[in-house]
Amino acid sequence: MQLPATAKMSSAIAAVRLNNAGGSKAMPVIGFGTASFPWGDRPDVTRSAILHAIELGYRHFDTASLYLSEEPLGEAIADALRSGLIGSRDDLFVTSKLWCTDTSSPDLVLPALRKSLQKLQLDYLDLYLIHWPIAMNPTKDYSDQPKWELFPIDLVSVWKAMEECHALGLTKSIGVSNFTCKKLEALLDFAKIPPAINQVEVNPVWQQKKLREFCVAKGIQICAYSPLGASGSYWGSNWVMECDVLLEIAKNKGKTIAQICLRWLLEQGDCMVVKSFNEKRMKENLDIFDWELTEEEKQKISQIPQRKGHPALEFVSEDGPYKTVQELWDGEI
Ligand SMILES: NC(=O)c1ccc[n+]([C@@H]2O[C@H](COP(=O)([O-])OP(=O)(O)OC[C@H]3O[C@@H](n4cnc5c(N)ncnc54)[C@H](OP(=O)(O)O)[C@@H]3O)[C@@H](O)[C@H]2O)c1
């Protein structure tokens, strides 16, 4: 069994050290996802789910300026501090992401981070990610737009601005999301600080073996999003939660399909962010540390036919930098 190098955290959840975090705290392998659609809908539900997650022992929280969950997350953290549920902000690992309107110019990166920090009521982030390798016109109100206005990202200057955010101590680590091997290769060519994380879709139905091998070789930690296939979301499907192979393994083991998915990720050394605002499922998703998958079970999972749940067609356009899905994913899907 291959578990990630662990370090002691304030909660029982194992944690990994990131390549550009210096002496900062390690990242708990399970993070609590806060994306729910419509974005920003029912902030009270989000806030109380986060507070409950802290009670249950989650210490890593994943937000983004897109999700409009930074404010409820900030309020939940402030509540947890006031009530003594956590001793200090340092007990938590908080990730946020730079949205595509703010990748359209390097000058927008630092103000975007400051705005996120203000919403979160924090002095620093633990991790700041470029959300997608693309830029959007920042002057447009996208709630009114039937179609996004898309541009190529100037990765050299935007990454330099990310490195400046890191140097200022406003984020302890920096990384990317939705990057292919090819895009990571390009970034590594000029980055003074290599990305700590690539946050991408990974689950038993979209295993990303080639990308994992590349990231392991380069010291970039994979953080899996949609680890359960994002059932019930417009960007997800039921392919994972209704997979026969996973169902059979789960039944034989007395576990749930969700637990099989999360344990599988853990054993191959990935971090993960999983979203549930349901108390029972939030608990269930943490209960993956004191049992193992057998070699035979892992072998069966490795044979599951592959298909990507979230091809992100919204970033593909005749007028944009990616004219086909293959171009967006560099032929890696
Ligand atoms: N970087 C990116 O581009 C990107 C993209 C997508 C997501 N993310 C991040 O990753 C997080 C997680 O991914 P996700 O939300 O897409 O998908 P996910 O965690 O794979 O799935 C969430 C769905 O599964 C349900 N669920 C959770 N635990 C369950 C369990 N034990 N049994 C049955 N159903 C369960 C949830 O419903 P209930 O809430 O009702 O339990 C929700 O409908 C997001 O919240 C976000 O923070 C990042």
Automatic annotation (TrEMBL):
SUPFAM superfamilies registered for this protein in UniProt: NAD(P)-linked oxidoreductase (SSF51430)
Per its UniProt record, what InterPro entries does this chain match? AKR, AKR4A/B, Aldo/ket_reductase_CS, NAD(P)_OxRdtase_dom_sf, NADP_OxRdtase_dom
Mention one GO biological process in which this protein takes part, according to its record.
siderophore biosynthetic process
An example Pfam family from this entry, by short name, is Aldo_ket_red
Q: Which GO terms describe its molecular function?
A: 3''-deamino-3''-oxonicotianamine reductase activity
So where's the catalytic machinery, residue-wise? Answer: Y67
Report whether Oxidoreductase shows up as a keyword of the record. yes
| Protein name, UniProt field | NADP-dependent oxidoreductase domain-containing protein
